[in-house]
Design goal:
Elements lengths: L4 E14 L4 E16 L4 E5 L6 H8 L7 E6 L2 E2 L5 H7 L3 E4 L3 H4 L6 H11 L5 H14 L16 H13 L5 E5 L7 H18 L3 E5 L2 H7 L2 E6 L2 E7 H6 L4 H8 L40 H5 L5 E2 L5 E2 L2 H4 L5
Parallel strand pairs: 3-8, 3-9, 6-7, 7-8
Antiparallel strand pairs: 1-2, 1-4, 4-5, 9-10, 10-12, 11-12
The structure holds iron/sulfur cluster (SF4) and magnesium ion (MG).
Family: Belongs to the ABC transporter superfamily.
Keywords: ATP-binding, Nucleotide-binding, Transport
GO molecular function, one term: ATP binding
């Protein structure tokens, strides 16, 4: 199957400026050469600790941040090469759901105006059709027509996120990137919004990229999962493989911290040593080596590449690739 989105060698380096003359003295390598594919109708989860570059990856794909390098193939076009105007038109097909819907909803506009604006920007429908689309979409996300004339501050966090979802859906995008869409919500509300996304995914055959620091959230919704560490992808696999047979030592450590329903499946807790290093000064070789319980000499000098260890499971680790780590 042809991927809907294919990211190749994506980089996002932020310059570090210092001194009176604001000279560039280095770079924060927030995204450091990422390859990803998202297939039509699937949900790809992107997980990792905060600061690993997940959100920056999403924003760079959508050109909310200009990429430093790399290609972003979507529907036969390299988004990284489009002009601002071409990209603006493309946004109809590429929508984002943000972590904090409140910050992204204009407080002076009614919900109807917010949704209408999206349709108008992308020249969708006549006025009458727009009215009808908006009335439909508000019910699809579990709110009512009466809500349309209210303002964002009249709603709870969960309701605001429903509005954020409606705004993304209303233009019928081909791909939605959801960046931690439930992490600002109370736990009780989180599952309602996740269930809504799950239903919508089925109903509209949505293709989603779902960014989260929380593996149990990703497990709920995703078909495949990519694990990020310090601006790179260290493992990608389908959900079942990742949860039953995690291979990269970092994935194993992340999973060992997730509570499991059946105690028989309980994994030994792997505690990572030290903190996440600074992406301004990443460790040499495999950037995970200072925290990896299995690191050997080669790990300090040679960076592993992401390669297929079978059944579409891609892992970036010398020991896994050589079969020394099962
Ligand atoms: Fe650990 Fe080495 Fe594998 Fe990196 S390459 S994850 S340091 S064993
Ligand atoms: Mg983030």
């Amino acid at each position: 199957m042809t991927p809907l989105l294919e990211v190749k060698g994506l980089q996002q380096y932020f310059p570090i400026k210092s001194g009176f003359l604001k000279k560039t003295t280095g770079y924060v390598k927030a995204v450091d050469g990422i390859d990803l594919k998202v297939y039509p109708g699937e949900t790809l989860g992107i997980v990792g600790e905060s600061g690993c570059g997940k959100s920056t990856t999403g924003r760079t794909i959508l050109r909310l941040l200009e990429p430093t390098a790399g290609e972003v193939w979507f529907d036969g076009k390299d988004l990284a090469k489009l002009s601002k105007e071409e990209m603006r038109r493309m946004r109809k097909d590429l929508q984002m759901i943000f972590q904090d819907p409140y910050a992204s909803l204009n407080p002076r506009m009614t919900i109807k105006q917010i949704l209408m604006e999206s349709l108008m920007v992308h020249k969708i429908g006549t006025t009458a059709e727009r009215e009808r689309i908006i009335e439909e979409i508000i019910e699809v996300v579990g709110l009512r027509k009466e809500h349309l004339n209210r303002h964002p501050h009249d709603f709870s966090g969960g309701q605001r996120q429903r509005i954020g979802i409606a705004r993304a859906l209303v233009v019928k995008p081909k791909l939605i990137i959801a960046d931690e869409p439930v992490s600002a919500l109370d736990v009780s509300i989180q599952s309602q919004v996740l269930n809504l996304l799950k239903d919508l995914k089925k109903e509209f055959n949505l293709t989603l990229m779902f960014i989260s620091h929380d593996l149990s959230v990703v497990k709920h919704l995703c078909d495949r999962i990519a694990v990020m560490y310090l601006g790179r992808v260290v493992e990608i696999a389908d959900k079942r493989t990742l949860f039953e047979n995690p291979s990269h030592p970092y994935t194993r450590a992340l999973l060992s911290a997730v509570p499991v329903a059946k105690p028989r499946q309980k994994r030994e807790r792997i505690l990572l040593q030290g903190d996440l290093p600074s992406p301004a000064n990443p460790p040499s070789g495999c950037t995970f080596h200072p925290r990896c319980p299995y690191a050997t000499e080669i790990c300090k000098t040679k960076a592993p590449s992401l390669s297929d260890i079978g059944a579409g499971q891609l892992v970036s680790c010398h020991l896994v690739q050589s079969g020394q780590l099962k």
